[in-house]
Amino acid sequence: MAVWQSIGNGIRTASRRPRMLVDLWLINLVFALLVVGPFFALFKADLGHSLLGRDLRPLNPAWLGDVIYRYQDMAPAALALAAAAVLLYLVLYVFLNGGIIGRLLDKEEGEGTAAPRLFLADCGRYFWRFARLFLLSLVFYAVALGAVPGALSAILKPVTENARTAWTIFWISNLRTVVALLLVSLVHLIFDYARIVVVVREERRVLHALGAAFAFIGKRFFRAWSLSLLITAGFLAGTGLYLFTRQFMPDTGLFWLGLALVWEQAFILFRLWTKMIYFSAQADYYGSRSY
Fold this sequence. Notes:
Layout: H1 2-15, H2 18-47, H3 52-55, H4 61-70, H5 75-104, H6 116-161, H7 166-201, H8 206-219, H9 221-246, H10 254-289
């Protein structure tokens, strides 16, 4: 009951912050435009005056192959640009999380609580602490994705070598994948609560916040984990609906392209809203159970 109550409270809290949702969407939109701008310029220069550009579908293999062949000398620069975009997005991700959690945990009512100046103030206030938690999380993710599956493969190696059917190898391979995914979700859960501890307690020592998150989850692991999984299931259901409806929208024609663009932006808003629900529900559960 407490899990469902926290999810309901999380939905209500996130729904009372429409301004923050719009601000997050605008920030993501501006970042995306800055990243795809150079590639759009390439597309326009290559096909802007061609009849092929009118009917070209996204990710057309023939056009992509031709572009890769003709601009192969630019591959290092393109890879460097992509790597820089990923790095900047990670920094932006850490920066924005401080504002999201800080504003969601503000008990005051009214849209003024999500004012940009307050949101950005929280982004800056918690950035370095969240950045340190992010760097710590990389170690845990490396163990979850590398060390544990590797050790499991070594333990099960005699079974795979002596397997008489391909099904045995298939199930063992899937077992490694499932274990890795479960460990990744656990790491994600622990560090989410560590961020909440930082904000709720104004904790400046990230190791103390991480220890408090371990202690909190250790006492109520299945409920805390089920809360996360339920919200994730809701997000996956929404994603499935988006993908199902998107396949019926043609990739040609001004009307359909415009409709697809609107639908894609609606999905991005849904994704950001789910993230707000995720944090606010976890914070509500932590606040009601941290004794």
